[in-house]
Amino acid sequence: MKYLLYILKRLVSLIPVLLGISFIVFFLIRLIPGDPAATLLGSHATPQAISELRSQMGLDKPLLSQYVTFLGHLLQGNLGYSYVYSSSVMDLVTISLPVTIWLLVSGTVFTLLIAVPLAVLAAARRNGIADNIIRAVPVVGLGLPAFWLGIMLILIFGLKLGWFPVAGYGASLADHLRGMVLPGVTIALTLSPILIRSLRASMIDVLSSDYIVTANSKGISTARVVLGHALRNAAVSSVTVLGVNLAYLTGSTLVVERVFSLPGIGQQMINSILGRDFPTVQGITLVFAIMVVVVNLLTDVTHAALDPRVKLA
Amino acid sequence: MTPPLLEVRDLHVDIPMPHGRLHAVRGVSLSVGAAESVGLVGESGSGKSLTLRALLGLLPRPARIVSGTILIDGEDVTGLPAKRLKRRLTDTMSMVFQDSLTALNPVMRVGDQIAEAPLRKLGKSRSEAKAIAVDLMREVGIADPERRYELYPHQLSGGMRQRICIAIALSTKPRLILADEPTTALDVTIQAQVLGVLRRLKQEEHVGLLLVSHDLAVVSQTCSRLYVMYAGKVVESGDLLDLVTEPRHPYTFSLLRSVPDPDRRVARLLTIEGRPPDLSEAVTGCSFAPRCPFAEDACREREPEPVPAGPGRVSACRRIDTAERWTAMVSEEAVSQQ
Amino acid sequence: MSAVTIVGPDVPAAPEAGRRIRGRWNPPLVAGLVLFGLIVAAALCAPLLTSQDPIKQNLADALLAPGAKGHLLGTDALGRDVLARLLYGARVDLRVGVLAVISPFIIGSLVGLIAGWFGGWVDAVIGRIVDMVIAFPFLVLVIALVFAMGPGTTSIYTAITLVGWVAYCRIVRGQVLVAKEQEYAMAARASGLPTWRILLRHLLPNVVLQAIVFSMSDIVLTLLAIVTLGFLGLGVPPPTPDWGTMIQEGQQFILTKWYISTIPGLAVVITGLALALIADGIVEKANR
C-alpha cells in the first residue's frame, strides 16, 4: 500500500518534467530557419496549403497560445500529422515503438547477463588475472562506437558464421527473439563496461563490509554469502547506474536500429530526417524523452523495492 | 584433566604494507575453558580485535595469519583443509561485533538473518528456522519477536540491533561467543542490558565468552579471567580479581589507573605517556619499556619472557619485584591529593 | 588505497613512506598521452604522410584492397584513397570533438557555479532547465537539433553545446555546494570582495577539477556522437572526409571488402582508448 502510494507520488512529480519536455520539443520547430508551416509541409507544398496550416497552427497568434494549443493536442494523444507519410505521427509511433521496446529489453537482459557475472568474478577475485582483464574492458569499451560494433557483429556472426539474421525483425515471436540477439548484444557490449565498473566497485565495497563478516561467521557457504548478501546490496546502488545509462543508451537504439534495419522509432526518426519530415521527427523526439522518463521511473521504483531504507513516504 | 574448549598457541598476524609489513599480533597464546568468560583488554592498536578475528578465520584483507596453532577440545585444527577448518571453527564459535548497524545486512529482514544459519547450515525447514529465530529473539530479550522478525536493521534501536547480533551468533548453536567491543557503541544503560544478556547465556546455556574490550569496567562486569594485550603481545594474564587488585605488569597497572575511580579519587599518576611502538619496525626489548617509569637497561635490550606471577598468573615483566612500590606510590599520591 | 582503511581503527596508521616515489605520472596517463599525441601528430602531418588527395575520385581504381600500389589501405567505392581519408578525417573529427567540448565546459561550469553559489530561486530555475534537457537521450536531442538547424559544423557545435552543458552544470554545482561551506569560501565572503571575484578567483579553481576529469571522458562521448552523426548522414557534409561517413559508406561492401568499414572504426576505437586512458590517469592523479 505504502509502495503504491510512493509510485503514485513519483508519477505526480513527473508532471513538471513532462511539461518541460513538451516545451523543448515545441521550440525545436522554431529553430528552423524560415516559415515553420512551409517546412512542415515539405518542399512540394502549395502556397494555399501553407497558409491554411499557418492559421491552423496559430502561427499568427502569440507564442504562448501556440504552445497551449500544442500541449492540448499532446494531451489528446495527437503528436501531429506527417505530410510525407500521409499519416498521423501517433500511428507511425504505435507501429514502430514495440520494436524499440523489444530492443531495449533484450539489450538490458544481455547487459545483465554479461555484466553481473564478470563484475562478481572481478570483485571476488580482486586483483587477480581475471580482475585485471575485466578492469581493462571499460577503458577500451568507452570509445567503442555502437554502430561499428554492430557492423562487426553482423560480419562475424551474421555473414561469416550465419548464426543469426543480419537484419530485420521477422514476423513470429521466434523470429523476433533470434533477430534481437545481435542488436541486443551490441547494446549490451556498449553498456556493460560502465555497469561492470560500478558493480565491481560496489561489490568490493560490500564484500569488505561488516555484515559480510557476520554472514561468513555463520559458517554458510561462500556462494551463499556472495549471492545472498553481497550481490543484493551491490545491486541496490547499481540499479541506479544501470538506469542512468539505459536512459543514455535509449539514444543508441536509434543507431542500432539503423545498422540492423529494425523498424523501430529510431529508424523511423532517421528516415523522417532524411525525408525532411518535421512533424514525425518532433513527435519521435518527444516519445524518446518519455521513454527516458519511464526508464528513470522504473529505476526509482526498482531501487525502492530493493532497498528498504528508501523512504517511501 | 580435560583440555580447554579453545586454545591458541603463539599466534602471529601480519598486515602487508606497500613497503614491508606490519607485525600486528606477535605470538599470542590464550585459552578459554567450556562455559568460561574471558576478557581480552588493551588499547586500540594492541591487536586484540585481530586476534579475535583470526580465531574465526575472518581477518580483514590483507591481514593474514603467519603462524600459530588453534586447538579445539585439545585437537589441533590448524592443519585441516580450508573447508573443514572453516566448518570446525564456525561450528564451535560465533562472533558479535562492535557496530551492530554495519554488522547487519541492511536489505534483509533481521529475522531472516537469524534464521539463515539454521536454514542453510543446520538443514532446518523454512518454518522450523523461523521458529528457531523467534525463540532466539525472545531469549536475547526482544519483546514481540514475531512482529520484529519482519523489520529491517535501520528500523531498530542500537541496543535492539545488538541483541539481534547476539541472536545471530547463537543461531549456529556455538559453544563459545567471541565478542568484539560489543557494547562500545551503546549508551550506558543499554550497555548494562546487553552485558546482562551475555552473562545470562553463560549461566543458563553454558555458552562461553571471549570478550574483547578497551574498557576494564565492561570486562570486570562480565569476565572471570583476563588477558592484557600490549603491542601485539599478551603482557599479563590471571584471574580478574587478582589482576585488578594486584597488577603484576606496569602496563596493566597504568591501564587500571586510567579508569577513573570516583570512590577513591586517585590521581592519574601513571597516565600513560607516549605511544605504542610502530609495529612495522622490529621491536627490541620490552615493547612497553619506552613508556614505563620502571624500565632499566635490560628491559630495553632483551625481550622479557612470560613468567609465573602467582597462582594462575603470568606476567611478561622482569621488574615484578618493584610491584609493591607501584602500589605504594599511588597511595602516597592519593594521600597528598587530599 | 591503504590497508589502514580496510583494517579499521585497531591498527596504527600506515607509514607514509613511498607515496612520493610513485610520482606525478602514472602508466595510463603516459600511455594515453603518447597514443593521443601520435594520433594528433598523424592528423597534423597528413600531407607529409600521404601524397593522395582524400577527395579526388578515381572510379577506375575503386575498391582496391589494402596494399595496392600507391594505396596502402586501399580505396573506397569511389576510388578515393582510404589512408588519406583516414588522416584528413582525423583532422575534422578531432577538431570538432575537442572544440565541441570547450563551450559546454565553459557554459556549464559557469552556470553550475552560479546555481550552486546563489541557490534559492536561481538554483531552482536552473535545476528545472537541467531536468528538461536530461530527460532527452543525448544523441536524440543532438540529432533533432542538428536537423532543425540544418547540416554543417556550426549546427553540430551548437547542438552539442545546448545539450552538453548540463553535465558540467550538475558536477560544478555539486562541488560548489560543498566548497561554499568551507573556511576559505567563508573567509572570502567575509572579506567583502566582489562576488564575481570570489566566484572566479577563489571558488572556481577549487571546483573545476571534477569538471576537467569529466571533460576527458566527455571528449570520447562527443567524438562518438560526431562519428555517429556522420554515420547517419547528418554530420560534416560530404565530400569532407569523416570517420563516421567512411564506416557508413563501407557498410554495403562489408562481406567482400570488410576493411573499408573496419579501418575507420578501429581509428575511432583507438582514439577513444587514448582519451579513456588519459581520463583514467587524471582520475587516478586526482584521487591521490
Can I get a quick summary?
By secondary structure, chain B is an alpha/beta fold. Chain B has helices at about 50-55, 80-90, 100-105, 110-120, 125-140, 145-150, 160-170, 190-205, 215-220, 240-245, 250-255, 295-300, 325-335; strands at about 5-15, 20-30, 35-40, 65-70, 75, 95, 175-180, 210-215, 225-230, 235-240, 305-310, 315.
Count the DSSP helices of chain B: 13
User: And the CATH topology of the largest domain in chain A?
Assistant: MetI-like fold
Number of domains of chain A: 2
> What kind of oligomer do you see?
heterotrimer
As a whole number of angstroms, the C-alpha radius of gyration of chain A is 23 Å
Task: Give the % helix of chain A.
Answer: over 70%
The helical percent of chain B reads 25-40%
Order of helices and strands of chain B: EEEHEEHEHHHHHEHEHEEHHHEEH
- Beta strand count of chain A: 2
Main sheet properties of chain A: 2 strands, antiparallel
Helix/strand class of chain A: mainly alpha
The general outline of chain B is: globular
The share of residues in extended strands of chain B comes to: 15-25%
* Assigned CATH class of the largest domain in chain A: Mainly Alpha
Using the 3D structure, state the CATH architecture of the largest domain in chain A: Orthogonal Bundle
Protein name (chain B): ABC transporter ATP-binding protein
InterPro entries (chain B): AAA+_ATPase, ABC_Ni/Peptide_Import, ABC_transporter-like_ATP-bd, ABC_transporter-like_CS, Oligopep_ABC_C, P-loop_NTPase
Pfam families (chain B): ABC_tran, oligo_HPY
Membrane topology (chain B): Peripheral membrane protein
Polypeptide structure, described:
The complex is a heterotrimer of chains A (313), B (338) and C (288). Chain A is an all-alpha fold and 313 residues long. Chain A contains 14 helices and two strands, in the order ααααββαααααααααα. Chain A has helices at 2-28, 36-41, 47-57, 63-75, 89-124, 129-141, 146-160, 173-179, 181-207, 210-217, 222-249, 252-259, 265-274, 278-306; strands spanning 81-82, 87-88. In chain A, β1 and β2 (87-88) form a beta hairpin. In chain A, α6 crosses α9 (181-207). The longest helix of chain A has 36 residues, at 89-124. Chain B has 338 residues and is an alpha/beta fold. In chain B, strands 6-7-8-3-9-10-12-11 form an eight-stranded mixed beta sheet, sandwiched between helices. In chain B, α4 packs parallel to α7. Helices cover 37% and strands 22% of the residues of chain B. Chain C is mainly alpha-helical. Helix content of chain C is 70%, strand content 0%. Chain C has helices at residues 3-7, 27-44, 46-49, 82-118, 120-134, 138-149, 153-180, 183-190, 195-231, 243-250, 259-287. The chains are: A mainly alpha (313), B alpha/beta (338), C mainly alpha (288). Chains in contact: A-B, A-C, B-C.
